[in-house]
Design a protein that fits this description.
The complex is a heterodimer of chains A (about 450) and B (about 270).
Chain A: H1 22-60, E1 65-73, H2 77-85, H3 89-107, H4 116-123, H5 127-136, E2 145-150, H6 153-160, H7 178-188, E3 191-195, H8 197-201, H9 216-247, H10 252-265, H11 269-283, H12 291-315, H13 319-327, H14 332-360, H15 364-368, H16 394-402, H17 407-438
Antiparallel strand pairs in A: 1-2, 1-3
Helix pairs in contact in A: 1-17, 2-3, 3-5, 9-12, 9-14, 10-12, 11-12, 12-14, 13-14, 14-17, 16-17
Chain B: H1 4-14, E1 17-28, E2 31-42, E3 46-50, H2 57-64, E4 74-82, E5 85-86, H3 94-100, E6 101-104, H4 115-126, H5 132-145, H6 149-152, H7 165-178, E7 183-187, H8 195-208, E8 213-217, H9 221-227, E9 230-235, E10 238-244, H10 245-250, H11 255-261
Parallel strand pairs in B: 3-8, 3-9, 6-7, 7-8
Antiparallel strand pairs in B: 1-2, 1-4, 4-5, 9-10
Helix pairs in contact in B: 4-5, 4-7, 5-7, 7-8
Classes of the chains: A mainly alpha (about 450), B alpha/beta (about 270).
Chain lengths: ~450, ~270
């Protein structure tokens, strides 16, 4: 005590608080640098997010519009009978359509060279659509019917700006000269752009008919799969976590289980696909491409995520709450279900929805169990016995489209990504809302 | 002369042994935490456990309602009898025991529910109330007993966690009292409270003595001297001395007790 002199601070003596000494300056600079690093990281992140969002929306939005040709004509029973006698029935129906279109063009008084090949290149082969319509609605025979037919993918691209006169090359799909006809038809209001409801509600189409392709059926497939995942993985996952966290003794066996759960969460999803193929399809003989099987495989994949997040949120409940419940004579189970579980609920729900969102975007395991199957039937037919019917899922559908040759399908893939992202965003928003609602402080 | 009958009566009740422990040993894995503890805790008496940190007083307290069962590595040997019945008997359900032996913890730990639900939880799970009116009565009685009724009666539906620290601890006492226990264990109930809240809780403990046997663990020797009639001094897992509080604080028999009380160890 005695050898401390009043000025023992040496270099500090005499310094006013208003001036920074070298050490403080260094510390402040380090702090400012660190803040700058953090800010840069966030800005880089935001930049890439914006680039991603803009490119997805720009490439995907054309999928939500389509180019249609409106043609009105009536067919008599005699004409239909005549067509049905032909060898190529759809070609006969297509001829009716071409005649009607020519008539419409003549009536509008436009001077454009119309030949049947050009019309076929612009509209494709509408014969089967017309034939199916009259078979399904025999009462419409003899009355004028307006057909709204999808234009070919090149014409669609011309409307969306994907195909331009400069980039246009004459091919068997579309000639540069055909574009004059398209322009003229557009001016007459015969060809126009409209919202593509088929894309949102329809099923996948054949490779040569991108205009009719839709993601609706695979949305339904994904929905059924998520239902299976939710119904199986939430109760199993939560029950397993409660047992492991609250009841199980700590010993070698439970340690082993814990390590295995952590490992399972890191197993590549394609491995789960192989497992699903081997067990559910080859051994248990469940149907291929069924949402039930997809759901089972994704359940296996989601369980570790749910268990880990549930255990973490159970562990985050202060032990004093458990003591309090036991102290007033509650049984272990009462203390868990009355007090611990409600407090852990926000965490459990968040974990579950994040697990579901992961499962929703998973493609690889679905490839192995054949959920990339082409679904010719549009929904709502497919909805009825949805768990066992062959179906596709959103990410698998996107993958299928991205692999197809026609550039128009590429657009559909981007559009599919937008739909998928909308679902993911919705799920995450629900997670946040549930979290807010259930969150209680203690 | 006038006081004589009263004194005799209190003598009788004090001789009523509520809990008797014989040769109690507690192990945490390899650590021998409680060694050969023999103690008789009387009914309608406040018994204080004092001693330096880590001496085993809280551990012994938690043996009395078998809260140590929740710790895997903890092993209890010896006999603890409640009204002549061995509480570590295989047939005894710890849940049933804890309804009889209530506990108040060091840190106030109300449930994140309303004040009413906090108090009503015990009676509800034990089926003590048949009707809503019964339950209301139990809640009111318990809150009154915990000297919280006047402060809480207008906000029964508000969360118990919104109360101040001292009020929360009194709420926990009300919650423990609501299940109509016979013994109330208190593990340093005032360590998180300010002096005013401490004084309120101490006053409360003195009132609770009318109906319960109260066992309190405390670090404050003044508190032990103020609220208890009997004091037990623990040191390094041994019960060093047990006797009348006045005796322990004024004329301890053991050297270690004296050293602790005078502040030389601990």
């Amino acid at each position: 005590m005695t050898d401390v002199t009043p000025n023992a601070g040496g270099n500090r003596a005499g310094n006013s608080l208003a001036t920074q000494d070298a050490r403080t300056k260094r510390r402040n600079r380090a702090e400012a640098r660190f803040k700058a690093y953090g800010l840069t990281a966030i800005l880089v992140g935001i930049f890439f997010l914006v680039v991603l969002a803009v490119s997805i929306i720009r490439s995907g939005s054309p999928a939500f519009t389509r180019t249609v040709v409106d043609v009105e004509f009536a067919l008599s029973q005699a004409q239909i009978n005549e067509a049905e006698e032909q060898l190529f029935k759809t070609a006969a129906y297509a001829a009716f359509f071409t005649d009607a279109l020519k008539r419409q063009i003549d009536e509008s008084g436009m001077e454009v060279a119309v030949d049947e090949d050009a019309i076929e290149r612009i509209i494709g082969k509408p014969g089967s659509t017309i034939r199916e319509f009259f078979q399904a609605n025999p009462d419409r025979i003899g009355t004028p019917v307006t057909f709204e037919l999808a234009a070919s993918s090149r014409v669609d691209g011309y409307f969306n700006g994907r195909v331009t006169r400069e980039s246009m090359q004459d091919s068997r799909f579309l000639m540069a000269g055909d574009l004059d006809l398209v322009d003229a038809l557009a001016e007459a209001g015969v060809i126009r752009s409209s919202i593509n409801w088929t894309f949102i509600t329809g099923a996948d189409s054949g490779v040569d008919n991108p205009g009719a392709a839709g993601i609706g059926a695979s949305v339904v497939g994904s929905f059924f799969m998520m239902l299976v995942v939710l119904v199986l993985s939430l109760p199993i996952g939560v029950a397993a976590s409660i047992y492991l966290e609250e009841f199980a003794p700590r010993n070698r066996f439970t340690d082993l289980i814990e390590v295995n759960i952590s490992n399972l969460a890191a197993v590549p999803s394609i491995v789960f696909g192989i497992l699903g193929l081997a067990i559910f399809i080859q051994f248990a003989h469940l149907p291929q491409s069924a949402p039930l099987v997809g759901g089972l495989v994704l359940t296996l994949m989601t369980l570790p995520t749910i268990i880990i997040s549930t255990r973490a949120s159970l562990r985050a409940v202060p032990p004093s709450i458990r003591d309090a419940a036991l102290g007033v004579g509650a049984s272990k189970m009462q203390s868990v279900f009355h007090h611990v579980l409600p407090l852990a609920m926000p965490g459990i729900l968040t974990g579950t929805i994040i697990g579901l969102a992961q499962a929703l975007g998973e493609t690889a395991p679905l490839l192995l169990i054949g959920m990339v199957g082409f679904v010719a039937r549009g929904y709502p037919d497919g909805i009825v016995s949805g768990f066992m019917d062959p179906n596709s899922a959103m990410p698998a559908q996107i993958y299928t489209w991205a692999a197809r040759a026609d550039a128009s399908f590429y657009e559909k893939a981007w559009g599919g990504i937008i739909v998928l992202l909308v679902f993911l965003l919705t799920m995450n928003i629900i997670a946040i809302i549930l979290r807010r609602r259930f969150e209680r402080r203690w | 002369m006038y006081d004589a009958p009263n004194l005799a009566e209190s003598q009788v009740t004090q001789d009523n042994i509520k809990i008797s422990a014989r040769n109690v040993q507690v192990f945490y894995a390899d650590t021998h935490a409680i060694k050969d503890v023999d103690v008789d805790i009387l009914d309608k008496t406040v018994t204080a456990f004092i001693g330096p940190s880590g001496c085993g007083k809280s551990t012994f307290l938690r043996c009395i309602n078998r809260m140590n069962d929740t710790i895997d590595i903890c092993k209890v040997q010896g006999d603890i009898m409640l009204d002549g019945q061995d509480i570590y008997d295989k047939r005894v359900d710890p849940v049933q025991l804890r309804a009889k032996v209530g506990m108040v913890f060091q840190k106030p730990n109300p449930f994140p529910k309303s004040i009413y639900d906090n108090v009503a939880y015990g009676p509800r799970i034990h089926g003590l109330a048949r009707t809503k009116a019964d339950l209301d009565e139990i809640v009111e009685k318990s809150l009154r007993r915990a000297a919280l009724w006047n402060e809480a009666k207008d906000r029964l539906d508000q969360p118990g966690t919104g109360l101040s620290g001292g009020q929360q601890q009194r709420l926990c006492i009300a919650r423990a009292v609501a299940t109509a226990p016979e013994v109330l264990l208190m593990d340093e109930p005032c360590s998180a409270l300010d002096p005013i809240a401490t004084a309120q809780v101490e006053e409360l403990i003195d009132e609770l003595r009318q109906e319960f046997s109260v066992v309190i663990v405390t670090h404050s020797m003044q508190q032990a001297a103020r609220v208890s009639q009997k004091t037990a001094f623990f040191h390094l897992g041994h019960l060093v001395e047990y006797g009348e509080t006045g005796q322990i604080f004024t004329n301890p028999e053991d050297e270690r007790t004296e050293s602790y009380i005078t502040g030389r160890i601990g």
